Amino acid sequence: MNMKRLFYFLPILFCLACSEQNSKDAEMLRIKLDGISSSPQREKIVLEDLGTSVSTVELETKDSCLLNKITQLVDIDYLWIVADRQIYKFTKDGKFICQIGRKGQGPQEYIAPEYIQIDNDQQLVYVLDFFGRKMLVYDYKGKFVNSWSLPEDYSLNRIALHNKKFYYTSFSNTVSPDLLAYDVATNTIDTISFRDRTMGQEAFAGQTFIYDLNKKTYLYHYFNDTVYTFDEKLHPDFIFDLGDAKFTYPQLTIIGENATEEPIRNPKIQVTNFIDMERFLVVSYSVRQSWAPNQEQDNRFALYDKSEGEMHSDVAFVYDAEPLFDIKPENALFASSDEHSIYIFKQADELLESPQFEDLDVESNPVIIKYTFQ
Predict the structure, then answer these.
(1) Nearest by Cα to 367 from 349, 346, 350
(2) pLDDT over threshold 50, residue 360
(3) Average pLDDT of 287-311?
(4) Among residues 58, 142, 195, 345, which is most buried (max CB within 10 A)?
């Protein structure tokens, strides 16, 4: 008999907020993201119709800052960019300032910076080194300040810095992840939520969300449908209602070659990112209809208009004035600090045909594009 392999979404802390959520469920905002077709529908959303303006930042290209794929962009005073397992600091207009730390296996180096957090008050950059299994701290000039080891027996991939504490989520062989809190001032770590069972061989079917934006920490739990905000305790903020597009546990349990305990008969959604702005909520998600390894990635966007209370479940973001600024499903979205904007990046070779970028060549760094919504 084949060993069952559980493909799961990481739940976060639903037990800690259940009692509070039950009392507020009726009044919570429910954002419906269902009725998904097996083939993309791509409702056209013209960005100009939303009052969106576009600005660009051409990142300076030097031998000391050659970037390829950007995996994280943090917009706090500067542009802090994680790319190719290295951390860079740029001005808001794209001038290269310095490299933060360096790759390596030494005590002051990182192997793979998975995630960074910026403490602007203390002017410190915190780096989660996934494979190095440690946290590193650098000042704004890139000088090493401190480091500490991450707990053993955990795989920690997301962090949020809130009120001088770090909150980590784990995904080590567990259906219900641990949430750990590290107090920077006292150098102590506590387990806030502990996993309740361990399975066999596991893999991801989605992504856990824990991030800090504008001093607001977000937590998302797929099977509880809920997005929480956090200020020492959890507050349920809104619910993603996926309807029939939500996986059940049996549909995530593989019992044979691409066969599940419960057949997947209609398209299912994996939420992969969301950005909460003042007027809009932009959601990135992918659609799956099987666990076939050769299945192409079907990435899509949804847009919720808070002012109108309207949900657009499957959209194509187009910019009529310049199609090069269309937001493609494969574009990673990054939050801005002003609650009205989002960022993406495009490789230089995608923009060479535009006279606006006549100074670029194929070896130039990616261009950051900022979309500001009215």
Answers:
(1) 346
(2) yes
(3) 90
(4) 345
184: phi > 0 → left, psi -120 to 50 → alpha, else beta; which? alpha
Cα-Cα-Cα-Cα torsion 65, 66, 67, 73, nearest 10 degrees, comes to 10
> Could you give the CA distance from residue 228 to residue 152 in angstroms, rounded to a whole number?
27
**Is the pLDDT confidence value at 172 over 70?**
no
59-66 long-range contacts (CB < 8 A, ≥24 apart) are: 59/90, 59/94, 59/96, 59/365, 59/366, 59/367, 59/368, 60/90, 60/94, 60/95, 60/96, 60/365, 61/363, 61/364, 61/365, 62/96, 64/96, 64/99, 65/90, 65/96, 65/99, 65/365, 66/365
Tell me how far the alpha carbon of residue 374 is from its chain's centroid. Answer: 23
**Looking at residue 174, what is its pLDDT?**
42
> Could you give the CA distance from residue 253 to residue 289 in angstroms, rounded to a whole number?
14
- Beta pairing class for 234-241 and 253-254: unpaired
Inter-residue contact 183 to 189 (CB < 8 Å): yes
> What's the distance, CA 109 to chain centroid?
24
| Position 344 pLDDT exceeds 80 | yes
Query: pTM of the entire structure?
Result: 0.86
- pLDDT of 359 strictly over 50: yes
Structure tokens at 292: 């076939």
- Angle of CA points 302, 10, 19, to nearest 5°: 90
pLDDT in tens, 49-65: 999 999 999 999 999 99
Separation between Cα atoms, residue 253 and residue 47, nearest integer Å = 40
Cα separation, 357 vs 344, in Å, equals 16
- For the stretch 177-213, pLDDT in tens is 567 778 888 878 777 665 544 433 333 344 456 666 6
